[in-house]
Design a protein that fits this description.
alpha/beta; single chain; 124 residues; 7 strands
């Protein structure tokens, strides 16, 4: 899967995804400091999925209706980098077919997949 990882994503998560065979564009490596709109534009032209810990992408998706790419919002602040890497790589691998075009929130205890344009919401 082609993934854009926002600057808010830790390097260990990016490394784990790359080790798992995913192609990851890491904003912190290539374009640090760019705006959320620029991150979103890169994701929409270069990737299947945007991975972020920035809640602003929820507003961009649902209030401004700007996003067409799948977004995974990681709400895993209390976990170690290694735990985050394991959870996020597992979620992406297990739900790859469902993530495109969806807004997904990952917490330590749940995965909520919501289709951005009126679809069903699913909790795992």
């Amino acid at each position: 899967m082609k993934i854009v990882a926002d600057e808010s994503v830790e390097g260990r998560v990016v490394a784990k995804l790359r080790e798992g065979g995913h192609s990851v564009i890491y904003i912190a490596e290539l374009h640090p400091g760019i705006t959320d709109d620029d991150v979103l534009n890169i994701a929409e032209t270069e990737a299947d999925l945007l991975l972020t810990s920035d809640k602003d992408f929820g507003d961009i998706t649902f209030l401004q209706r700007k996003s067409k790419v799948g977004i995974v919002l990681a709400r895993l602040q209390t976990l170690s980098s290694e735990q985050k890497a394991h959870i996020l790589s597992s979620v992406i691998d297990e739900h790859a077919d469902e993530l495109s075009g969806a807004f997904t929130v990952v917490t330590p205890s749940s995965v909520r997949i919501r289709h951005q344009h009126g679809g069903l919401e699913r909790d795992d």
